[in-house]
Specification:
With 167 residues, this protein is mainly alpha-helical. 65% of the residues lie in helices and 0% in strands. The protein has seven helices and no strands. The longest helix is centred in the first third of the chain and has 23 residues, at 7-29. It is globular and about 45 Å long.
Length: 167
Amino acid sequence: RMTGDTRVLAEQYDSARRWVDYAAGAAATRRHHTRGARSPDPLPHERYVWDRDWHYGEWLEGGETVDQAIAKALDADPGPVATAYLHRSARELAEIARILGHDDDGRSYAELAAHTADAWRIEFLADDGTTTPDTQATYARALAFDLIPPDLRSAAADHLVQRIREA
């Protein structure tokens, strides 16, 4: 973005595609046990919710010890974090594809990003701008990744401020 040099994008394009394709495939084929308990058959949007396997994420929230965070994370739904990153990765890859002239890929990854954002909103965003989980990290990530629609951004930011003040 700063130099206009696209060489590193071209060099990493195939690995970026493999990563996003892996994550999208995992989202489409695996479900967290809480969604399985809710409905034996996946809802249509769930194919874009990446909620299985272990993921890196912001496990340590304000006021928690490392041991508390680890215990919580072992059974936690990784969907809010992983799905947000799948959305961001697909959106970034769509932009990279367009820059490199891979227009079909650009459209495909933009569509994946849009579906993933919709799925994130269905699963993790309430009509009042509250996120699930209702944490600083979730609000900050969702706002930074443009997962909160414009009409709910102010409410979500207010919830983030409230979480910060409480901590």
